[in-house]
Amino acid sequence: MRITVLTGAGISAESGLATFRASDGLWEEHRIEDVASPEGFVRDPDLVHRFYNDRRKGAAAAQPNAAHRALAELAGRHDLTLITQNVDDLHERAGSPDVIHMHGSLSTALCASCGHRWPAPAEMSPQTPCPSCAALAARPDIVWFGEMPYHMERIWAALEDCDLFAAIGTSGNVYPAAGFAQHAGRMGANCIELNLQNSATSRDFDHHIRGPASETVPGWVASLS
Ligand code: APR
């Protein structure tokens, strides 16, 4: 059985990482246009680097939870394509062999001048030089609002080719990810949503499992023969 899974911030919530739209979410404390847009980076690169330095530190201190581990185990038993909107590395640290980071990753730095990528230092600043071209143009390798998500060709192919599509811990507020269930469903996949509560796209799913991911995901993975 070919399975495609999309994860969102909710799968890392029980690892202690803030989600975006909860009452204590990241977008309650920061304006998206200030810390998650190209314009915000041009306006105040130091603020943006500090925002991602804090998130990089938080992600490094966090541990994968049972949901991350269950998906890593699933990859050993089924043809699984794992897509995440998350920029933490908890899927990799749980043992998932191939993670598609459609919104980028805190683990890499990107040179806005020459396009070079390298392992992100713990703390980045406007004075961080690119190791390839030496320009002081380092930015977090994060897809900001208004930018194109990464790996979309591979993602559309996985959605069109899978028998089962699961979305875990995402509110369905941000496209194109919010449209993945509809697309996979149109191509014949069975769609299941694992979330604490209803999302903006719950109607696009055939099945729903409600509860915290660290409890629901291991049970769901175990139910897949
Ligand atoms: N278990 C399962 N689901 C959970 C848990 C949990 N323990 N805690 C929260 N959730 C659910 C919430 O109910 C919500 O539906 O996870 C979802 C988190 O939603 P958001 O905070 O909007 O995060 P996400 O959907 O990943 O955001 C998508 O928006 O801001 C951009 O680029 C950012 O990748 C992000 C994108």
UniProtKB/TrEMBL annotation:
Annotated positions binding NAD(+): 8-27, 85-88, 169-171, 213
UniProt keyword annotations, A-Z: Cytoplasm, Metal-binding, NAD, Transferase, Zinc
Pfam families named in the record: SIR2
Cofactor note: Binds 1 zinc ion per subunit.
Ranges where the Deacetylase sirtuin-type domain occurs: 1-225
Positions of substrate binding: Y52, R55
Positions annotated to bind Zn(2+): C111, C114, C130, C133
Primary localization class, coarse: cytoplasm
EC number: 2.3.1.286
Cytoplasm in keyword set: yes
Family matches, as InterPro entries: DHS-like_NAD/FAD-binding_dom, NAD-dep_sirtuin_deacylases, Sirtuin, Sirtuin_cat_small_dom_sf, Sirtuin_class_III, Ssirtuin_cat_dom
Keyword check for Protein transport: no
Catalysis performed (reactions): N(6)-acetyl-L-lysyl-[protein] + NAD(+) + H2O = 2''-O-acetyl-ADP-D-ribose + nicotinamide + L-lysyl-[protein]; N(6)-succinyl-L-lysyl-[protein] + NAD(+) + H2O = 2''-O-succinyl-ADP-D-ribose + nicotinamide + L-lysyl-[protein]
EC top class, as a word: transferase
Function summary: NAD-dependent lysine deacetylase and desuccinylase that specifically removes acetyl and succinyl groups on target proteins. Modulates the activities of several proteins which are inactive in their acylated form.
Domain notes: 2 residues (Tyr-52 and Arg-55) present in a large hydrophobic pocket are probably involved in substrate specificity. They are important for desuccinylation activity, but dispensable for deacetylation activity.
Family: Belongs to the sirtuin family. Class III subfamily.
Listed name of the protein: NAD-dependent protein deacylase
Gene source species: Paracoccus seriniphilus
